[in-house]
Amino acid sequence: xxxxxxxxxLAAGSTARWASRVTGRGAGAMIGGLVAMTLDRSILGQLGQxxxxxxxxxxxxxSTTTRMTAAALATLGPVASNSEGANMDAGLVAALAGARDxxxxxxEVDEMHVPHVSDAVSPSVIVLLNLSRDQLDRVGxxxxxxxxxxxxxARHPDAVIVANCDDVLMTSAAYDSPNVVWVAAGGSWxxxxxxxxxxxxxxxxxxxxWYSTGSDFKRPSPQWWFDxxxxxxxxxxxxxxxxxxxxxxxxxxxxxxxxAAVALGADPAAAVxxxxxxxxxxxxxxxxxxxxxxxxxxxxxxxxxxxxxxxMVDKHGAGVVISVNGQVPxxxxxxxxxxxxxEHFDDTVVxxxxxxxxxxxxxxxYAGVEHxxxxxxxxxxxxxxxxxxxxxxxxxxxxQLNRRIS
Length: 406
Description:
The chain is an alpha/beta fold. It folds into three domains: about 1-40; about 40-275, UDP-N-acetylmuramoyl-L-alanine:D-glutamate ligase; about 285-405, Protein-Tyrosine Phosphatase, Chain A. The protein contains 14 helices and 17 strands. Helix 9 runs antiparallel to helix 10. The longest helix is centred in the N-terminal third of the chain and has 19 residues, at about 5-20. The radius of gyration is 21 Å and the shape is globular.
């Protein structure tokens, strides 16, 4: 039940959102949420009351997993979700205010905001995907984020934690929680978890298993996992799973989304069918016609994400365009480029693009990758031979390209 002040705050936010749209300044979701929060600081908690919510967080895969979770939850009823990826408080307020009658919610939440958002909305399920370096000049040291998440989860012992047991840091965050569903969602990037976040000792790895040499902290046995064709769950559950989205990383995202929806009562087969139909997430993965080329657009924002995106690239097409900016939303510190393995490009036309294309070109040069430099991303695509081009872009480069081709 909204208070009188809360209703007034939402009305003012709605007016601000309308004004933003009609003046062409944007979609208005963020400004609407900000206005409502300024007038009533408790508005997020009020909007979260009476809903069964799933909070999804992690460095990579939040938007995709949230979209899949919303699809799976929709088999149970109407769902509120911040499907455009505005994952801080104002975006959450806008998403919940826009679906006041929905009794379910799938909320993508920035990992640094999870504790206070969880305090406000009391989620039924919290999905923990992965933790790795991201936006070094904003996010900072990831072991601190892990400890903050761990403390936030401790305040919500009744929540079901759906955690990726292949990720050392997220496992540590969830390890002490009383109600954890462990999912083997994958985690090929291990560069940020060479030491135990609890003891500081070395993490030893043996295939998919891992353990800390300084404590009894080790990889839990998963209740959910996947392979190339099926998803596996509790009590001998086995279901075929064919996704519209590419890559093993998205099979892991889908498995966590299904586990979250089943925790809220969804039928597993219906949930798998729902996540299998997700074929685009806010412009990611879509293929578009640009001049004489078809172009598939992938988003990557940090070393772990770049490693996964590069594994999806078709290296035998007309070319690969890699576009990198260094604006505030990207993180202005691009030193992480040196942690990405670009060396695997052979006999592929590679074009470095974006505002920080020169930085990228230096990195490609040291990787021994033959390339050209064309700062404008559309012009970079046009410079490739006719045919299909794979485009990988970081955050603002991705947004700029989508605005130009929409």
